[in-house]
């Protein structure tokens, strides 16, 4: 392979399609712009890599024939200094790269759909959008701006219908599939979507700190909504027809009143397959269309109670946490959990030290638990 070919390959490997500044030789001022600046997008920025990798560093060094140069370091590479002759040899080669198109693999990233949680809006996910744009340039990311703020208290089946109408055209335009990132209450909305949509094409369903087995805890949200109630007596409200008009009551799961939960829950007991209904078989089949289920949560969440609910664990009648494999919905495979685990399609990513409102802005969490699954 020629030296020029190796240099081109190294540039492509580094995905260097943004701003590159070259100082001019001694005696001239300014700098030479060889690439257009990054393009601003509504949902974030594409950024230059912070440093050049060893492959590009070594290839350019060989191409430039390292030698002393009084005009300063070029390309920002420590120890790499080009003589005027080396610069003139390098310049025509780099100019040939100006019309180059992005590396072919960029177009293969599947679209990402983000569904927010209780009292949230699309603005809360600005950091997540930035991370995706930096690591997977060109990815089409849609944060659905539905049921924001207090509207997120609307009954969950109403929200499922609204989000279904929003995601259907996105899926239709992505025959290769899409990824879902669904935060907190949004994780339950997304699980219901996977159940009721018989034509969904979700590759990775990333459940980000979501109470998948329900919620049973005295949180600030709960105290704001029901200031005179505590978790021990909230069942009296939530397991009434009036209470089921609030989203949080749709997944309120009181382990001390299991019969009331099974009879009154109009949402969680249904998507869990804990109560018989005519769509149970079809919903299970639809849910199993998902390529991968990624479960994320942690012990320092501070809102999801118990925090293991993010992994389909939950309290028994003595408030001892039973893990997913001990839950009846798993043992009976009522909506497909056991089948998913058997085929290796469940990924569990617990992480300590992250509070509930920081899951979508924590860079380490993104790189560890989310980015690997955004193919």
Characteristic terms for this protein:
15 helices, alpha/beta, Rossmann fold, six-stranded parallel sheet, 33% helix
Structural commentary:
The protein has 15 helices and 12 strands. With 375 residues, the protein is α/β, with parallel strands linked by helices. It has a domain at 106-216 and 276-373: Alpha/Beta hydrolase fold, catalytic domain (Rossmann fold, 3-Layer(aba) Sandwich). The strands form 4 sheets. It has a 6-stranded parallel beta sheet with strand order 6-5-7-8-9-12, with helices on both faces. Helix 1 (3-13) packs antiparallel against helix 2, helix 5 packs across helix 6 and helix 6 crosses helix 12 (280-287). The chain is globular.
- Helix tally? 15
**Radius of gyration over alpha carbons?**
26 Å
Q: Would you list the SSEs in sequence order as H and E?
A: HEEEEHHEHEHEHEHHHHHHEEEHHEH
Strand fraction band? 5-15%
Note the overall shape: globular
Q: What is the typical, i.e. mean, pLDDT?
A: 80
Provide the spatial order of strands within the biggest beta sheet: 6-5-7-8-9-12
Classify the fold: give the CATH topology of the domain at 106-216 and 276-373. Rossmann fold
Compute the number of strand runs.
12
Q: Output the structural class.
A: alpha/beta
Could you give the distance between the termini? Answer: 30 Å
The fourth-level CATH homologous superfamily of the domain at 106-216 and 276-373 is: Alpha/Beta hydrolase fold, catalytic domain
Poorly predicted runs are: 3-8, 10-85, 99-106
- What is the percent of helical residues? 25-40%
> What is the CATH first-level class name of the domain at 106-216 and 276-373?
Alpha Beta
What CATH architecture label of the domain at 106-216 and 276-373 applies?
3-Layer(aba) Sandwich
Q: For the report, how would you describe the main beta sheet?
A: 6 strands, parallel
InterPro entries: AB_hydrolase_fold, Palm_thioest
Main location: other
EC number: 3.1.2.2
Pfam families: Palm_thioest
